[in-house]
Amino acid sequence: MSNKYEVLSPAGDLECLMSAVNFGADAVYLAGEQFGMRTASKNFNNENLAKGIEYAHSRGVKVYITCNTLPRNNELDELPRFMSTAQELGADAFIIADLGVMEFAKKYAPKVEIHVSTQAGIVNYATANAFYNMGAKRVVLAREMSIPEIAELRAKIPDDLEIEVFVHGAMCVSFSGRCLISSYMTGRDANRGDCAQPCRWKYHLYEENRQGQYFPVEENDRGTFLYNSRDLCMIEHIPELLQAGVTSLKIEGRAKSAYYTSVITNAYSNAVREYEKMGDSYTLAPWIREEVNKVSHREYNTGFFFGSQPGQVTGNGGYIREYDVVAMCEESGEEYNIITQRNKFYVGDTLDILPPGGKSFEVKALEIKNQYGEVVESTPHAMEKLWLKTDVAIPKGAYLRKMRNS
Predict the structure, then answer these.
(1) What would the pLDDT profile of 278-294 be if each residue is shown by its tens digit?
(2) pTM of structure
(3) Model pLDDT for residues 27-38, shown as the tens digit of each residue
(4) Whose CA is closest to 96, among 150, 168, 37, 21?
(5) How far is CA 272 from CA 24, 207, 268, 283, in A?
(6) What does the pLDDT look like over 131-163, one tens digit per residue?
(7) Are residues 256 and 108 in the same domain?
(8) How far apart are CA 37 and CA 112, in angstroms?
(9) Is the domain of 50 the same as that of 87?
(10) Which residue from 330, 328, 322 is spatially nearest to 400, judged by alpha carbons?
(11) 396 lies in which domain range?
(12) In the chain, how many domains are there?
């Protein structure tokens, strides 16, 4: 890594990969068309994988391929070809949960680093050392570990064994994602990347002789969310994590949008780079803290890093959404910026701008022209190319956002 500490971002498709790279990721993780834990994502065929690796490597960013399902016997014949192809295309690491898969990696892709997945459930230094002795370069710790436990583990493992932890995103109600609820209720196996997220559903009780008459467990009148975990957010605790010996800060979200990837990557990248420069005098900039609220999210908490905390959202099963993306800047100009519309906004609106890798700022929409040069008052047409005059220039590749109800 070119930087001392790594910000590791999700890439569900090529657009997300490019967004992560452009907004400050040091590495991205993604899946091929097999053996990855997110079937809901578009994922990467070999053509897009080659394009993604080339794009990332040309900008100094590493690419890690998830190979973290628990494959069945009938799938193993495909694994050698999958791994050798990934090595040929330039993959930097495999993220692996299964011991048999690890042995295949060492045999068929010996130049690719092995990172042990969080699904291996590593919660102590003995297990970390065992994986190191088997050839692992990095361990992705279980999400249930506290910061003091991480620091103790760091002190009792080799210096060249890297530690990765999840710092942001959705949390699974089961231990390190080892969930059977989806498989039991829908036939979709969470341990093979196909979770239906039944933990987010509403649940009620009913008595067997009164079918159709539901009795909510009293949380609120909208239902009971027994398993509905809050989202993890550690943006305010970067120093504690890095001082405990964490090498890589991992953002969850391979099923999320390119916008989500951009915003959260930008926030953590800026926070980590500022900490690297400032050291003990570091304080989190308010604008960075505000950024994590500008994506759709559930209520935030700090997971298990500071001990057990209330993990369920009991008010509802949905998301908090305070901002909408209204446009993307295609070209920056001295007088007009060329933008592509995403949602409606009006002349006179205050827009929040997120430039690639930089600090967010506000502009005023002074004038809008359509592709025919006609002055218009709003942007009602989806994906329309427009010319926007603002009081401050907007960088190419920036997101234009508007606060809801503003």
Answers:
(1) 999 999 999 999 999 99
(2) 0.87
(3) 999 998 877 655
(4) 37
(5) 10, 53, 6, 11
(6) 999 999 999 999 989 999 999 999 999 999 999
(7) yes
(8) 19
(9) yes
(10) 328
(11) 324-403
(12) 2
